Amino acid sequence: xxxxxxxxxxxxxxxxxxxxxxxxxxxxxxxxxxxxxxxxxxxxxxxxxxxxxxxxxxxxxxxxxxxxxxxx
Length: 72
Fold this sequence. Notes:
Elements: H1 13-22, H2 25-32, H3 43-71
């Protein structure tokens, strides 16, 4: 007699939807939660992000100046 590996039954999309709809909110959050690792950015991406940060600081200074001028 040879042993055969038991096959795992395939789960249909309808079954998955049924199970997910029957979970409570905190159980659903636990099922959907998965860790996304931090991405290591390269040169052009870092340049764009730092440019946006500098632009944001500049625009905050412009708005603060305009508010100060309007108040006086």
